[in-house]
Amino acid sequence: MKNNAILQIPSLNWSNKDNLLVYEKTPIFKLKECAAISGLDSCCDLRLIHQYIQRSSSILEIGAGAGRVLDYLINSNYQGEISAVECCQNYCQQLLKRFGQKISVYCQNLLRLSLPKQFDLILWMWSGIADFAPAEHLLALKNLLSTLTDHGILIFDTLDPTVTPAATKYNQGQEYYIDIKYGIIRTYSVTKQELDQYAKKLHFIEKKQLHYTATNGKERILHIVKKA
Ligand SMILES: C[S@@+](CC[C@H](N)C(=O)[O-])C[C@H]1O[C@@H](n2cnc3c(N)ncnc32)[C@H](O)[C@@H]1O
Questions:
Q1: Count of domains observed in the chain
Q2: Hey, whose CA ends up nearest to atom 2 of ligand 1?
Q3: Which ranges of the chain would DSSP assign to H, the alpha helix?
């Protein structure tokens, strides 16, 4: 008898740590390829927030990966101070090699963030929050807010929660399993209701949402946040 293929849904028990194991195995060229598949290699997200970038005197990027955001900041002749956090050893070494003379690179995990100063603008782009399980969201956001100056701005990107991420293999509710060849990245699409709850708990205000369409046609949102 022919065996009907059963779709194996992976365990929903995951955390950001599982994704880090996959990033550790993923070479830089593949991460760049993923940025193109996600429609962000054109830096359409960064062009939208150009005014916030130009107005700030210090910027911290979280999860700098292959250096897409850092390249944009340097190529757009940003004159302020630039810092970056990345916790994958391979990416961190490459970032230090490429940018270490010009910017401060911290090889740290966002969930244990400890930096010597605060920043005017923090950028957590390309669905940074989606890389974390919902149980980790409050700690990640709390660490970011404590690294932000009192009048500083935090900008983070999410996919529109009704949109399926590119290269999705399975999904279960708000959780998506994305095959990037070197492993499966688990993501969680946060909703407006969840973000409102986080804002209440952590005392931040969403000043603005910028809705945009990435070059792969997928709707995304940039959240512009400040301390309450
Ligand atoms: C999708 S890539 C985004 C790269 C870059 N921010 C961009 O917009 O092009 C996500 C990056 O976040 C990093 N990352 C994931 N979890 C992290 C954590 N807990 N602490 C620091 N970096 C993390 C990953 O290693 C990866 O480089």
A1: 1
A2: 65
A3: 16-25, 28-37, 44-48, 50-55, 68-75, 89-99, 134-146, 192-202
Q: Is residue 7 in some structural domain?
A: no
Does residue 8 belong to any structural domain of this protein?
A: no
User: Is position 222 within any domain?
Assistant: yes
CA–centroid distance, residue 150 to ligand 1 (Å): 25
- Kindly give the confidence (pLDDT) of every residue in the chain, 228 residues in length, as a single tens digit, with 9 standing for 90 and above: 344 443 444 556 899 999 999 999 999 999 999 999 999 999 999 999 999 999 999 999 999 999 999 999 999 999 999 999 999 999 999 999 999 999 999 999 999 999 999 999 999 999 899 999 999 999 999 999 999 999 999 999 999 999 999 989 989 899 999 999 999 999 999 999 999 999 999 999 999 999 999 999 999 999 999 999
**CA–centroid distance for 175 within its chain:** 16
64 pocket-lining for ligand 1 (C-beta < 6 Å): yes
Please tell me the pTM assigned to this model: 0.95
Which domain covers residue 53, as residue numbers? 16-227
Other Cβ atoms less than 10 A from the Cβ of 113: the count is: 19
* Domain of residue 217, CATH code: 3.40.50.150
